[in-house]
Amino acid sequence: MLLQRNMALCSLVLLSVFLFYSCFASPPNFVLLFADDLGFGDLGCYGHPTSLTPNLDRLAAGGLRFTDFYCTSPVCSPSRASLLTGRYQTRSGIYPGVLYPGSIGGLPLNETTIAEVLKPQGYATAAVGKWHLGVGLNGTFLPTKQGFDQYLGIPYSHDMGPCWNLTCFPPDVKCFGSCDIGAVTVPLMHNEVIKQQPVDFLDLERLYSDFATNFITTSAKKKQPFFLYYPSHHTHYPQYAGPHAAGKSLRGPFGDALLEFDNTIGNLLATLEQTGEINNTLIFFTADNGPELMRMSHGGNAGLLKCGKGTTYDGGMREPAIAFWPGTIKPGVTHELASTLDILPTIAKLAGAKLPTVLLDGVEMTDLLINGGTSEREAMMFYPTDPTEMYGLFALRLGKYKAHFYTRGAGHSGTVPDKDCQIFSVLKAHDPPLLFDLESDPSEFYPLFLFEHPELKDVLERIMKVKQQFEATMVFGESQIDKGSNPDLEPCCNPQCSPKPSCCHC
Fold this sequence. Notes:
The chain is α/β, with parallel strands linked by helices. Helices cover about 25% and strands about 15% of the residues. It is built from eleven helices and 15 strands. The strands form two sheets. Strands 1, 2, 3, 4, 5, 6, 7, 8, 9, 10 and 11 form an eleven-stranded mixed β-sheet that branches. β13 and β14 (about 400-405) form a beta hairpin. The termini are far apart. The model is unreliable at about 5-25 (pLDDT under 50).
């Protein structure tokens, strides 16, 4: 009976997929929007009272909004590696911490990105914005070497250089805080060539918007399916915004930066409508990690979640996420467990593309997106910013329960009153693990103890079994970040000039 039921279910899913594909004359397009250091509570559609995000709110109202969506790391580079490869960062070696302008390593070329999955299917591919997966010698690790036909952007975080040219509102007021003074000024690259150094931040978002909309328009005219990856610099500290957004929000520089990102999303939506591609395009929005709470009002908000960037509490790794596809995805809210890991296999399934011949950690979400079905994701693993084989997982979520094997605060979340979040909260091992019911206690305030809840013994045993099975499959890749840094690799538009970094100006 069970076998017959499973066969009937499989037949129903296959029929749904067949009917879905028959509605489209061409393969679907994909627009992947990735915010930077954005908290679970930062968007209007997720409850923030003063964020001005009309276009993201439109996506949420007309699409599927996730309440339990996770990234894989509480910092930038490893999270981005997992998004693009569908694999935990420990496998690709993007740990510990993040890559820098002069980093010798980067995302290994033998890893397969979403763009490389789609290229054999005839897709045009473009990336615009923050790459942060390495530059390397002669641009070894840039997007154009990782499956993208075109790239316009800053290849790492915009605070990784002196930010004296970063301005807020009015234009003559310098931005709050400081950046990395000893590095070269921040470059704007087109493909593998530096077009501007230092970047004109007041005009940057206009350049990004024009590049992205032109890419969509050109692809549509060619009748070529396309994949646009837009990892924004917004809302990473220090915030900036051009004249169309500066001073226009109620939330200061952070709100202005968020509004500027939202404006570009509005331009993308308008272009998709004008080209007639809106009903044949999956738009997916999420973010790389939680808010940098140490920046206080300049650092974002995790809402009701505990801690933020740098920690393996949910505030560091649970993100807003929205899937929008008019006529295909029904508007609604899902409480199913999902992750950035799941985007690559989902896109591959929808495009009819082959999956990479490596162990993937992602599961495809087509039934969840198209039919409002359940997620195939059973569990979510939580690694710290500096994962090691000795410690393994810091936490694991199975269903509605989350177990912490280790906890630790972080400098990125150091200003909040909760002492568990602060850098002075040193590494603590928990045996048995701290156990939380995230449905009744999303703030991770009230651990469940077995002497009070003996019925949870089976839950804990299942969690430990899943942990053991997962860690048995985990082979840590060679750390790309431990390869070190070489100042000569920092992007410079006048590579033979002297003295560096001040001479890198064009």
